[in-house]
Amino acid sequence: MALANLNPRSTLKFLIASDFTGGEGGIVTIDGAATATAGVTVLKPATVATDVPVGIIVVGAASDSGTYPDYATNCEIYDTLIGCFDGALCGYGGSITAGDAVGCDGSGLFTQAGTGSGDFVIGYAMTSASEGEQFTIKFNVTQF
Description:
144 residues
């Protein structure tokens, strides 16, 4: 599922650590170890609340070569985490209510934000969503 037309989309050159096909609406972070080895920023799905959010997958895709990490010219990442974004995906096993602080769940999707030391609040839900549904997020990235 591709999301609606959005601007701005990332024009940065980056590698992806795994196949992002079907990952639309998910949160990505920088894979530090792979970036150090590759010498170019490598993005991976965020999997814990302490992962630094750097973008949201708008159009997921496999790498150009089929190997990882590598470039994915068909992959689009929304990397301007200011303002609002309509297309954040609610994680599985929960729901989000308008006004909730939201963070990252174990699958790289959005969930109600935790309050543990080092956890990130990525923003606030402007609309409500059930498991697997899209919602609008107002970005306000902060860390506990």
